[in-house]
Amino acid sequence: MYLLDSNVIIESKNRYYHFDICPGFWDALKKYHRITTIDYVIKELKDGKDDEIIRWIDDENVKTILKSKIIRIDSDDIQESFGEVAEYISTLSQPQSEKDKFLSKADPWLIAASKIRGHTIVTHEKYIPDPNTKKIKIPNVAEYFGVECISLCELLKRENIQFFLKESH
After folding, report:
1. Global pTM?
2. Closest CA to 116 of 71, 81, 88, 141
3. How many domains would you assign to the chain?
4. In which band, very low, low, confident or very high, does the pLDDT at 131 lie, cut at 50, 70 and 90?
5. Is residue 117 classed as helix, strand or coil in its secondary structure?
6. What is the dihedral of CA 41, 77, 2, 105, to 10 degrees?
7. Are 11 and 40 in the same domain?
8. Domain that residue 99 falls in
9. HSE of 9 in the Cβ direction (CA atoms, 13 Å)?
10. Quick check: 154 and 137 in contact, CB under 8 A?
11. SS (H, E, C) 119-139
């Protein structure tokens, strides 16, 4: 299973896979049972006030499909895993403000859920080898917990998802 970070959905809409340009991308997110996310990412997307993304999430067809796929973070095992992630974050050298910022988002929950369920995180964030970097990145924390992170392009290649030009006359 693949868990999408909110930045993948936002960037897809804002760049290469806009709803009007590549509806096949959005169909793939709905149809491929191995592609999902956590409920906190959905909350983050709705809190972002992007009307197009909110309309897509709230579409009855999408809602029905997502409801059966979305991973809820309120399970005991994910809550416990989040505690381990938070404990690890507390040991990092980054400023407390950066730790608080990281822990207040969906990012640590994605890692916690992936760690417990053996899922792969799909994110646009890149691993930063410098431990003294100010910002805490998903791939850096995920690596510590043995969670794989890949790009959207890698997901599309792995799952052999292709988009074709529709001829219009």
Report:
1. 0.92
2. 81
3. 2
4. low
5. helix
6. 30
7. yes
8. 76-118+133-146
9. 27
10. no
11. CEEECCCCCCCCCCCCCCCHH
Residue 65 and residue 113 in one domain: no
Sheet holding 120-122, edge to edge: 35-36, 2-4, 120-122, 149-150
DSSP class of residue 159?
T
Any idea which residue has 């959005």 for tokens?
Answer: 26
Count how many Cα atoms sit within 13 Å of the Cα of residue 104 in the half-sphere of its side chain: 6
Model pLDDT, residue 159: 93
Q: Can you say whether residue 146 is alpha, beta or left, with left for phi > 0 and alpha for psi between -120 and 50 degrees?
A: left
Cβ partners under 8 Å of residue 136, min gap 6: 89, 92, 94, 98, 99, 101, 102, 107
Short-list 100, 155, 153, 131, CA closest to 108: 100
- pLDDT at position 165 is 81
pLDDT digits (tens, 9 = 90+) for 88-104: 999 999 999 999 999 99
Q: Which helix (H) or strand (E) holds 140?
A: helix 138-144
| Adjacent-strand bridge partners of 38 | 71
